[in-house]
Amino acid sequence: MVGLNAAQTQRVSTGLNLSRRIRRTPYTARVEAHGASGFSVVNHMLLPKAFQRSVEEDYWHLHTGVQLWDVACQRQVEISGPDAARLVQWMTPRDLRPATVGVCLYLPLVDQHGGMLNDPVLLKLAEDRYWLSIADADVLLWAKGLALGAGLAVQVDEPAVSPLAVQGPRAEDLMAAVFGERIRALRHFRFAGFDFDGTRQVIGRSGYSTQDGFEIYLDTPELGAALWDTLWAAGETLDVAPGCPNLIDRVEGGLLSYGNEMTRENNPLECGMARYCRLDGAVDCIGLAALQAIERGGVQRQIRGVLFDGDPCPPCGEPWAVRARADGCPAGQVTSAVYSPRLQRNVGLAMIARELWEPGQTVTVLSADGVKRNGTVTTLPFTEDPG
Amino acid sequence: MVGLNAAQTQRVSTGLNLSRRIRRTPYTARVEAHGASGFSVVNHMLLPKAFQRSVEEDYWHLHTGVQLWDVACQRQVEISGPDAARLVQWMTPRDLRPATVGVCLYLPLVDQHGGMLNDPVLLKLAEDRYWLSIADADVLLWAKGLALGAGLAVQVDEPAVSPLAVQGPRAEDLMAAVFGERIRALRHFRFAGFDFDGTRQVIGRSGYSTQDGFEIYLDTPELGAALWDTLWAAGETLDVAPGCPNLIDRVEGGLLSYGNEMTRENNPLECGMARYCRLDGAVDCIGLAALQAIERGGVQRQIRGVLFDGDPCPPCGEPWAVRARADGCPAGQVTSAVYSPRLQRNVGLAMIARELWEPGQTVTVLSADGVKRNGTVTTLPFTEDPG
Q1: Which residues in A15-159 belong to E strands, given as ranges?
Q2: Which residues in chain A are contacts of B117 at CB distance < 8 A?
């Protein structure tokens, strides 16, 4: 493996002014050695955002090979103890009673107004021990505050668990080479324990891509480099590459990003998560009364796809207004957008008013470059023939 | 004022992949037009980190002229309602009973273990209304969780308030030109209301530098550009420049940074905040029992300055080990460091074990470039003659 010298450390830090506050991960040195050309910050931690290949080249590779992603920024909020199940259920409208140990569950976290606070994946490790694998917000403080305020008998902590994702159609072959054939039987959104270098690690069949994949919840930071190197060596015949969440794949696949597609201003019914909302009173959730009222009043907007014309669109750094094509009335906003080389159109994730949210409605997208682009509302994920 | 074209937007986003999740501020367009060359992320929001001048040039300018800083990322957590005073006091060991409306108070926020959750400045707006002007962590979620869990009668929210700092020895002249002569009478760490463009804005005499300065808590985002431009125009004869928190000034002045000098693993007694800890039971704070126990057991480490030799040190992206010079035993870690052109030595903020924390103790700093540097423990702030 390539060593890192001081000059390289300087280079990759350009533009972000690295400090302890923006935490490095057990894999950052490897990611730097592979030439990461940019980072984002999620949960006070580095997330690589690009390597030497373009986003489009990365996209095609993700659909054919296998990639290693440093997603340690998906921090775990561990909730354990006698009241753990009660606290976790209180935080989400998703009915957790059917959940068994070994499942991963995608779910909304809401406040008392039904506002989205996060959309983590829950791992049920035991009847009294859970991990929330979180998007970008300090769920740790929320859970600690609730527990302390309500006097619940729980421990809330952020363990030193740093997910490494292995994504792409050849992920299963790579994982089997390192963790044994048994891993092939792991079902989607299930996790189990597997051995690595004398340790037992949680591995889930999951990931933030449309492709097959796994997430290794490494709880031994000092093994980060060894884990990366072992996967890399085993992947040399499998077209392995360094990667990161790919914007084209994410938008095409309709994978939401907390802070982008939704904020505290949105509720899960607007975010297409009605199937994760048990609102008949069978479960006790903080936002229950608010969500019941929203349901009674009728949801006024919802996340949709928008397929739109013109040259490849610029980066969507701020929401872009969407208007009804017919009368120019406000119809919502695009919150993430990118050019899809597969569909040969721009694709966007958008919050769309109910008047316009039916697939096929025609809209105008006002992108940041000042261009007005003709668009069509679609269901998600995007498909070849939005018909 | 210079307009921003799409190419410029592209340029400044390089390396950070801007998205809605990393929020722009009411001043970002102005900061970009002034050629900001890098950003950091604080509270899910952009903080400019450099302009066209070097950190050293910026440092000298900060000590002679006046600078405009986009510190909108210092978000306000507003706590209001009948139980507001009770909740705010519960969050901090600082005795808030003497606080009057109009004061700014620096204070530690702690959890039930006495661990630091933040070090905001509190603005008491009314007997039942407070702002916590926060460092980088979602205090909003902590306060909301505590309030909801304990059933307190409060509102907790993040208003659209975006501080713009005016820092430097000529800040008072600039502020007087824009807000009137009355502002000269505003005392350090006091705030009051001042008029701007038909609105009333909170302005405090405060800021994250060693120099005189003010922070304008603009609550009208659409006036961001006008506020910037008005200050800029009035500053043309006062050597105004765009700026940002300056690492040299911050370290020399012993100004702490949450996430750098301290984390949840540290308590306020370690962070030199004993004077903000009322531990005799007169106030009801979450961490009271834990802090009393820590005080009884004796504090084992504390933040100090370290003055150290050698070429200008590299950026301190991760803590650097500090060892006792005499016997090589672990003595702590440097958490922020930079070369001081005034002292012509490297200066660092460090958490130092009690055995070595007396000024004058000799230590070795192991910086990231592999160099072992001779250092001396000092009090803070750093002075010309550390004695």
Answers
A1: 38-42, 45-50, 66-70, 76-80, 104-106, 109-110, 116-118, 121-126, 129-133, 155-157
A2: 141
